Every structure is written in structure tokens, then in C-alpha cells.
Amino acid sequence: MRRLVPICALSVALALPSHAEEDTGKSLMEQGAELFFEGLRKEMEPALEDLQGLVGKFGPAMQSFFQEMGPALAELADEIEDWSAYEAPEMLPNGDIIIRKKRIPDEPEVPEESQEEADGATEI
């Protein structure tokens, strides 16, 4: 019994400082999150360096483009209420850019020939 009491006291004394360190230090979740983000940063570093190179290469050209085309794009954005109603822009061989409106599946397709008669007169 005499040996048991000092051993228990020593065990409690050794356990208390480690428990106190856990309270003041970072939790396992915080340490895990830091390790995760550190690994992610190391993995993404080459891609970010490539991206910085592209920004250095194309940045001035894009800035010039937005300075010249910004007002026209703002007007276009004001006129179009729902961008999801349009197809992706398409460039024609002559350089024209067209943006087609998407077809609604329930909407019947009306051929243009039925609106005009063969002689060019429109039926009223």
C-alpha cells in the first residue's frame, strides 16, 4: 500500500502538465486543418506561379480591352435580363459574333415560309 500511494501521486503529477498543455495549445482539428492547408498550398504552388506568369503576359492586353469595351459591355448587360436564356457566343468566319437565344422546347417552330406567300405578299 505504501508503494501504491506514491505511484498514484506520481502518475497524477505527470498527467496534469500534459493536460494543461493541451488546453493552451492547438487542438488536433486545428493542427489537422493547418497541415491540410499547408499541403494544399504546396500542391498548388506550381499552378499559381504559372497563373502569375499568364497574368504578367496577358494582363496589360486585358486591361486595354476592358478600358475600350467596358462601356459597350455594360450597355449590353443592362439590356439582357436573363443570361441563361442565350446560347454561348459564336464567331462567324467573317468575324461577326452572334449570340442566339435558346429555343424553348415547348414552343412550336414556325417556318418563315408559312408567314409569306410565294409572291411575297403577307397574309392578313
Written description of the protein model:
The protein has 124 residues and is mainly alpha-helical. It has a domain at 27-101. It contains two helices and two strands. It has helices at residues 4-24, 28-79, and strands at 90-91, 97-98. Strands 1-2 form a two-stranded antiparallel sheet. A hairpin with a 5-residue loop joins strand 1 (90-91) and strand 2 (97-98). The termini are far apart.
Whole-Å distance between the termini?
114 Å
Strand content: under 5%
Overall geometry comes to elongated
Instruction: Give the strand tally.
Output: 2
Number of helices: 2
List low-pLDDT spans. none
Key phrases:
signal, 2 helices, mainly alpha, 124 residues, AAA+ family ATPase, single chain, 59% helix
What is the element layout, followed by pairings?
Layout: H1 4-24, H2 28-79, E1 90-91, E2 97-98
Antiparallel strand pairs: 1-2
Brief sketch in words of this structure:
The protein has 124 residues and is mainly alpha-helical. It has helices at residues 4-24, 28-79; strands at 90-91, 97-98.
